[in-house]
């Protein structure tokens, strides 16, 4: 495979240079990720970090990361890596889009990538087909809900989330649920206690399925669902692995695979400054565990929907 | 929304109280420390230190009381740093406070990865269980809200009253207030100014840490990084809104908690109104209250000022 050969040559060259000069030269391929949260949040930040580690192991490149970078520090954190000659600088999350655009304009040599970012000129964005993921989860949970009401707990309002909610609501209705899918924002991605209270409120309003769209706060949503004996739906990670009794349906947005792929493409030189989108059923995003009580016919229906999505013939 | 629906009202008041409790513990600490003349920007860090300590203690001893104890110790430790730097060494108290907040944020994240590792967010630590006060808890609305709570909530009510009695009904309380308003005069009267400030700042650390312990031991039963999520700063606002009075601060915290609970509920009853509007409400109320209701806030006269006997 060309990749392996190239990697081998690069490694060999780097080793040779290192041996000659006693230190590694700037020719080494270097990738950096800037993260909004902590790398142990069991959610988005952790999986992106895992993707970086994966890329390091696969390609033998040099990597670096900055965690817990606040909105105001995004530009300085990203342009710092770009100035230091990192070949690819990745912003983890849609909230980096504006900062990434500026950094890319000021540092034309660096490839700037935003994971889950809106398609933007001058940068490469890796996206998920959010309406489709929302639809799949909405459909399964809508088929299973008894009260007909769902609750979604988000951190802040932004496009990817709203697209997801729209898809979820369509799937929810298509699955036959008669009530509504309510949305609450906690305005804090990490506040576990507040996320739990918000979820308890949604449950009191009749929701029997809840879905977190948070960082550390997700734990509060899952706990409230466990304590109240209702279902939880997972979007990012397979909750069927951590809370198999409470998880009704999970999709897996494998941001680690998306991140690793972005770095690998940049390393191979095939990465372009355009938008890449993963649909349900791809290597970087797929349906995870469904609860054992989900009947065969529902499983078959979901399989059929995903097959249509992959064939490109699906319409909501 | 139907506020007259008893169940809804009970749920909402319950949420209000649960969201207020960590604020109240921290605000009581803030009142104590600021009344002795030491700014306590570090409340946020002390809540977080307490939360981590509580998780660590509960994890090691497998017992919520062990958690509470270690939590309080960690908070007092953070308080001691502020005391040494801010009182003895005369470093700017605001800068010290910010430094402590940042330090605690980093060290707790670091230690939590060492102690809990990957299981941090799936762990379920032993916690306090609600205690029914027989008879009282069956009163509609108020019963379940006030008398079906766990030990920490009853402790909080007792501590609020104790801090009030201490500050206004004991000679020691008078000494604290004197040190905060006029340390030179207090010194002349033979009150050990630095000693009093040390006591207050360290006790404040313990109190704020109990707020963090409440989050871990009564609400979510695990530690997650940055779980204080700005509560210390809201408590600080409550101290000012409550005019440096323990019961005033308690009322302010309850107000913040209630608006927080209200906005969580209003959001999905009025989905057409931007949710930011509801999130703004508690702060709008506090600004209005600061301007209109409580008059000009008058902080303790010597707050933030270093006291040196020989200095002019």
- Provide the structure class of chain B: mainly alpha
| Largest sheet report of chain B | 2 strands, antiparallel
Which architecture of chain B would the CATH scheme give at its second level? Answer: Orthogonal Bundle
Shape of chain B: globular
Helix count of chain B, per DSSP?
Answer: 12
| CATH C-level category of chain B | Mainly Alpha
At the third CATH level, what is the topology name of the largest domain in chain A?
Rossmann fold
CATH second-level architecture of the largest domain in chain A: 3-Layer(aba) Sandwich
Provide the β-strand percentage band of chain A: 15-25%
Question: What would you call the shape of chain A?
Answer: globular
The overall pLDDT of chain B, averaged over residues, is 89
Helical proportion of chain A? 40-55%
Low-confidence stretches of chain A: 14-26
Largest interface: A-B, 32 and 35 residues
Instruction: Provide the spatial order of strands within the biggest beta sheet of chain B.
Output: 1-2
- Share in β-strands of chain B: under 5%
Percent in helix of chain B = over 70%
Look at the structure and give the mean pLDDT of chain A: 88
Q: Helix segment count of chain A? A: 11
The CATH fourth-level homologous superfamily of the largest domain in chain A:
Response regulator
Structure, explained:
The complex is a heterodimer of chains A (316) and B (312). With 316 residues, chain A is an alpha/beta fold. Chain A has eleven helices and twelve strands. In chain A, the strands form two sheets. Chain A has a six-stranded parallel sheet, with helices on both faces. In chain A, helix 8 (218-228) links the parallel strand 8 and strand 9. In chain B, helix 6 crosses helix 7. Chain B has a single domain (13-293), classed as ABC transporter involved in vitamin B12 uptake, BtuC (Orthogonal Bundle), CATH 1.10.3470. Chain B has helices at residues 6-35, 43-61, 64-88, 93-115, 142-147, 151-169, 171-181, 183-188, 193-220, 231-241, 246-269, 275-293, and strands at residues 131-132, 148-149. Chain B has a two-stranded antiparallel ribbon with strand order 1-2. The model of chain B has no long low-confidence stretch (mean pLDDT 89). Chain B has 312 residues and is mostly helical. Chain A binds chain B through residues 38, 40-42, 68, 151, 157, 182-188, 190-194, 196-198, 200-202, 204-205, 216, 219-220, 223, 242, and chain B through 7-8, 11, 15, 18-19, 22, 109, 112-113, 118, 120-122, 215, 219-222, 224-227, 229-230, 260-261, 264-265, 267-268, 271, 275-276, 279.
